[in-house]
């Protein structure tokens, strides 16, 4: 039994940052088609102007704007038709005073012209002459070269998680591959004599490995890679062997199970047996999730999560995901749904408290219904659509209060 | 030029539902490890009780509760130690009046016992006797068989999109594979004489294919499959050939480009040339995105999106994604971030108006800054983190108003 100090989530994350300040996430190159959800490892700087040429934003005639000045319905300006620009082709020739060249939407503005008058304001008198019924100003209906994006401009910042719109931006710039951070590698170990895998027969006294599968999905969803997953009995040598495998193949090893004090010591002993830093976080003031430990073994991060599935999910979201985010430097907007609580919920004094909620709609409002149940209960996971977080300095949330609901 | 009626988004979706009422999304079986993000095609019914046996929720002694009645610090109850239950093993023997059996957290409650008294309230007198210092009530510290989930209970509903917590629930139930809907197959065609692909050399007058890449990422993100992607010049026969390929390999064909009236007619002609229903939506009252067409060709859905990247993303979110959702029957909680607008934005009367915004933080509040720019502008996509939707019956959003920001 240990008597180490329980630290806050923020303290734990700071200690992790410090202990793993030498941990570097390498980068690799990938095609933009494969980049969805990946994190940029460097700024994207435009090598091209977009558009690459002055282009018309309407169907109309490219002219010199001064030729239209004073034009009206009653006194039009008459201009000479000098051909047309085809889509996707360079405009040849030059527009001189008194000339007009037809340009389709997106077409290139010919040399000499400084605006495009929309076809709606033009009357075609014959094959060679048009009448312009309205004045047009300098640069009207023109998107100039580089108006959208200028060459050498930083377009996407390092740390951006690639979304569909970003991929569109890269395509526009002619960028086909980007440098992204390698996916963080994880190794998952579920411990406990009672834990059996899906393909094993159920016997009295046994329970299925829930955390292994839930953690694997959480890791995939956050963009990590699972290098291995195993179930180990409560045996020092067997557990040490599995942790060794994890150290060899992954950056972060997650061990779950053993929520009792004795079992926690056991996990600590294994982490400490690798030499070096060993366990440096011996409990976190989070509810549920207190019996969480964090250590460094052979340079790798080893995190001991609680055995209860609900607790282990909360610790994953608050510690593992957040640690990964700091490692990768991901630029991130917190995503949540705002909802009104439909019942009072008490928090635990001095602890950051997590509460599962179900999101519902009531009279046009989004509401959050707290879902109660022992932290070992699985059905909580199927009922709840998200969770709320209560700070250690608050006493809870009252019915009617607006809360932020985070998705699992 | 066509003079067909422009319909509302809701009307367009209703028409699509009706025209494609014969479209069925098939289901397939997948392992729960591969099920993240997939949509359940049938209810999941528990075949097991969870837990599968009465279990202790604490480290303590299984006893008959009446043996502890009246027990106190000064007058304890004395009970006979009758061994212990090992984790993961069935409890043998029966607890009779006057007996106590040690049970660890999660261990199986032995026959005859109806509660567990925590070790904190027990004193071990010798190897054979314990003193109980507190009364314990019936079922205290016990989770009964099926307390969490009962056999034959519906645990996850058809239409659920699988999240990590759901995968944990299935593992708990011993379910290793599930029936999910097949991914919807898409085929993407970008049209236009000016459009070139990433590996082509840039020339004056050309533009990169942006929509092809952005749409591919949007489809992947929503859980669809892209069967093919191509760029086609404005040529009836070439376009018809590509649409044929799309019809052969996909459920939904997306054509983008040709935002001008003439080009739209051209796309319509190709869709109509396959016989059958042809084009039945000839424009949607959405801004930007009006020149959207929808048709049915050889039983498949063909959707003509605007060429401007920003418009085409909005039409994808409002029409394509929503159509897919209705086809699959996905149970969904709308996800958005609530923010305060930091500027006035006007909507277009009679149209559902979409406005790109940037999400920021100001004095502890989440704010939405509208991002303006011609709809053809790419930089909008890199600046904006999401968008707001203004209903056709509103005049816009005022500064300070709370809005829902959706992610692209």
Automatic annotation (TrEMBL), chains A, B:
Report the sequence similarity comment from the record. Belongs to the MoeA family.
Entry keyword set: Magnesium, Metal-binding, Molybdenum, Molybdenum cofactor biosynthesis, Transferase
* Catalytic reaction equation(s): adenylyl-molybdopterin + molybdate = Mo-molybdopterin + AMP + H(+)
Domain MoaB/Mog, chain residue ranges per copy:
187-326
Pathway annotation from the record: Cofactor biosynthesis; molybdopterin biosynthesis
Gene Ontology MF annotations:
metal ion binding; molybdopterin molybdotransferase activity
Kindly give the SMART domains that the UniProt entry links to this protein. MoCF_biosynth (SM00852)
Enzyme Commission no: 2.10.1.1
Q: Which organism is it from?
A: Peptoclostridium litorale DSM 5388
**PANTHER family given in the database record:** GEPHYRIN, MOLYBDOPTERIN BIOSYNTHESIS PROTEIN
Q: This chain belongs to which protein, by name?
A: Molybdopterin molybdenumtransferase
């Amino acid at each position: 039994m240990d008597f180490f100090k329980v630290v806050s989530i923020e303290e734990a994350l700071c200690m992790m940052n410090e202990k793993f300040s030498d941990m570097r996430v390498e980068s690799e190159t990938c095609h933009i088609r494969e980049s969805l959800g990946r994190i940029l490892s460097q700024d994207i700087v435009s090598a091209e102007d977009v558009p690459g040429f002055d282009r018309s934003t309407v169907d109309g005639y490219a002219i010199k704007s001064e030729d239209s000045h004073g034009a009206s319905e009653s006194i039009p300006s008459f201009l000479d038709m000098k051909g047309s620009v085809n889509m996707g082709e360079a405009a040849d020739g030059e527009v001189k005073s008194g000339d007009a060249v037809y340009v389709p939407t997106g077409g290139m503005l010919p040399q000499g012209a400084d605006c495009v008058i929309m076809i709606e304001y033009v009357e075609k008198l014959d094959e060679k002459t048009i009448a312009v019924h309205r004045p047009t100003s300098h640069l009207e209906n023109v998107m100039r070269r580089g108006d959208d994006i200028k060459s050498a401009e930083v377009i996407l910042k390092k740390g951006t998680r690639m979304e569909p719109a970003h991929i569109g931006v890269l395509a526009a710039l002619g960028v086909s591959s980007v440098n992204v951070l390698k996916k963080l590698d994880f190794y998952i170990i579920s411990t406990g004599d009672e834990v059996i895998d899906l393909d094993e027969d159920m016997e009295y006294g046994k329970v299925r490995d829930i955390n292994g599968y839930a953690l694997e999905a959480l890791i995939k969803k956050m963009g990590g890679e699972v290098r291995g997953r195993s179930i180990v009995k409560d045996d020092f040598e067997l557990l040490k062997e599995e942790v060794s495998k994890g150290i060899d193949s992954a950056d972060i090893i997650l061990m779950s199970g053993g929520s009792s004090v004795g079992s926690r010591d056991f996990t600590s002993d294994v982490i400490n047996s690798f030499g070096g830093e060993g366990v440096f976080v011996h409990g976190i003031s989070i509810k549920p999730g207190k019996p969480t430990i964090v250590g460094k073994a052979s340079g790798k991060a080893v995190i001991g999560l609680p055995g209860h599935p609900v607790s282990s999910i909360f610790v994953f979201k608050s510690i593992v995901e957040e640690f990964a985010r700091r490692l990768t430097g991901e630029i991130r907007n917190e995503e949540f749904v705002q909802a009104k609580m439909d019942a009072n919920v008490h928090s635990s004094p001095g602890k950051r408290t997590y509460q599962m909620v179900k999101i519902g709609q009531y009279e046009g409002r989004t509401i959050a219904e707290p879902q109660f149940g022992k932290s070992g209960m699985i059905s909580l996971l199927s009922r709840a659509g998200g969770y709320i977080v209560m700070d250690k300095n608050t006493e809870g949330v009252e019915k009617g209060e607006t809360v932020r609901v985070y998705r699992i």
